[in-house]
């Protein structure tokens, strides 16, 4: 038994040796390392381009785990790289924002003003309740000087400037408008170039429009004055049946017709959709600033969608009157192209040609610019006309004096011309005094989007800050206008140092009106702004409104409603900083 066991064990041992000898010897350690390195270096595509250039996943060695594993690993690594890049970019942007915010706080803290951590509580209360912003700023200027700083929010600085010399410097250096202004007009009128924030983008369009408005004063523009008055009276016959007119609505009608007749000519006065167009303009203007204040358009709100529908209807009507003006000009005048550029359709045919050069089509650009002009022109002109009408019913002697001057300046049978209006010095003085006392808004706003402004007195205003000029404080400064600065006195514009005829006939290239040889008065008369962003139609507005008032007073006598005459008189006498009341007026035709 023991022998058999020994032989069996021996056989097993020999069989094991034979099996080991049959297997190939293991490679040396150096050879193994070399093989692995060769696989990594020559067979593994480290980039997606390398993978595509190979024979495909089938040719990749097993050491990479196959094609799917490689692509999965590549996707993970690429995603991680993109996430890291995005994180670094966001971090860099946030760091820049934080640095800009710290710089804003540092520069803003050097400007005199009340202390506030986030936003000035007094200003917030005034804005929330719709209080007297002029009175609030007046108290601050009395305490802190001609330049006052207010924090509207943690990242928004407001700087109010009252001194006339500094005001001139601000309006000269700060050439941009607030971004909210551009968003408001873009939302209401569509894409346009005339009301964008950056001055460099709008400079060419402004020059083109300025040339057009000044030419309208000498090329047939005055012949529409009687037609405008007749059109207004025809359209408000239904209101006249009540026995009186609403002063504000009547002023809006006058402004609407004079701006429309200027842009579109006689075609506008015969337009059947004019009443609907006026209503749409007022509805769109009412809510434009509110909806533009949203950082993201609230398309989910039904009221916003209704507003956008109104804007679309307004655009359709604007395109309609543009076509009507072009068709009527071409069919009536039969001018060649050169003469057509001087016809009544000049606005839509030529003067906005510079604004049409851009990525948008010319028709879209023209439509947006004209809609913006109508909105802006009506709002500013209607305010001034309403103030003048209220003055006429409050002071009958003023109306009698104006009527006597109008009758003396022109014949009863002749139409008013620009030269006739320029001879009516008291009428021009009345318009200017009304604009001085009650400008279109309480604040004149400017902004410097990209550069800091260094003003006199060593004040540095950081880029992006809101610069405001309280017009009521500047234009009723007793040190400039005298002790009666808060009173209505047209004779202050008839003094020797002021020549209204020369002012309004100044070259079209000037940016403002050199009101007086006294620099302080010129710098303190800002109802139309000043500097590079001054109202380009200020001379046109003064002459056009003067011509309309003259035409109106030649035919009609403006009287107050009997039940409201005493109330209007008392409110006007006690009000210096607020707009005049919305009075009721009666128009009585004069006997010739």
UniProtKB/TrEMBL annotation:
InterPro entries noted in UniProt: Cyt_P450, Cyt_P450_CS, Cyt_P450_E_grp-I, Cyt_P450_sf, Cytochrome_P450_monoxygenase
Pfam families assigned: p450
Stored PROSITE patterns: CYTOCHROME_P450
Domain of life according to the entry: Eukaryota
Keyword Membrane: yes
Record's keyword terms, sorted: Heme, Iron, Membrane, Metal-binding, Monooxygenase, Oxidoreductase, Transmembrane, Transmembrane helix
TM regions (residue ranges): 46-70, 82-106
GO molecular function, a single term: iron ion binding
Binding site for heme: 535
Cofactor names: heme
Stated family: Belongs to the cytochrome P450 family.
Protein name: Cytochrome P450 3A29-like
